[in-house]
Design brief:
Layout lengths: L1 E6 L2 E3 L5 E9 L6 E7 L6 E7 L4 E3 L7 E6 L4 E6 L8 E10 L3 E5 L3 E5 L2
Parallel strand pairs: 2-11
Antiparallel strand pairs: 1-3, 3-8, 4-5, 4-9, 5-6, 7-8, 9-10, 9-11
Length: 118
C-alpha cells in the first residue's frame, strides 16, 4: 500500500509564493515518476509539473519559469516551489506517484487547496 500526504497549501496574494510538499510511504520502487496535478472548479485535472527519480522534469507551459519541482529520493518526498502566483493558479493541487514494475499504478494524495486572491 502506498500513501501520499501533501502539505503547504493556503491563501496567497497575486505575485506571492507558496511551497507544496508531499511525502510518500509504503512499497515504493526506486524508479518512478512523481508529479503535481491541479484541478480548478469546473475544469479537468491537469499536469502542473513532474519529475522522474533520475531528475528529469516536465512542466505545463503556463507555469514554466514560475514553478520549480524537486524531490528527495532518500526521503520519498516531492516539492513544488510556486512563485509569481496568479489568480488562475487557484485550484486543488494533488501529489501523484507513478509506481510499479511491469504494471504502473497511479497513486494520489488527498489534495491541498491553493487560493490566489487579493
Amino acid at each position: 500500500q502506498v500513501r501520499l500526504v501533501e502539505s503547504g497549501g493556503g491563501l496567497v496574494q497575486p505575485g506571492g509564493s507558496l511551497r507544496l510538499s508531499c511525502t510518500a510511504s509504503g512499497n515504493i520502487f526506486s524508479i518512478n515518476v512523481m508529479g503535481w496535478y491541479r484541478q480548478a472548479p469546473g475544469k479537468q485535472r491537469e499536469l502542473v509539473a513532474a519529475i522522474t527519480s533520475g531528475g528529469s522534469t516536465d512542466y505545463a507551459g503556463s507555469v514554466k519559469g514560475r514553478f520549480t519541482v524537486s524531490r528527495d529520493n532518500a526521503k520519498n518526498s516531492l516539492h513544488l516551489q510556486m512563485n509569481s502566483l496568479r489568480p488562475e493558479d487557484t485550484a486543488v493541487y494533488y501529489c501523484n506517484l507513478k509506481n510499479g514494475v511491469r504494471t504502473i499504478y497511479d497513486y494520489w494524495g488527498q489534495g491541498t487547496q491553493v487560493t490566489v486572491s487579493s
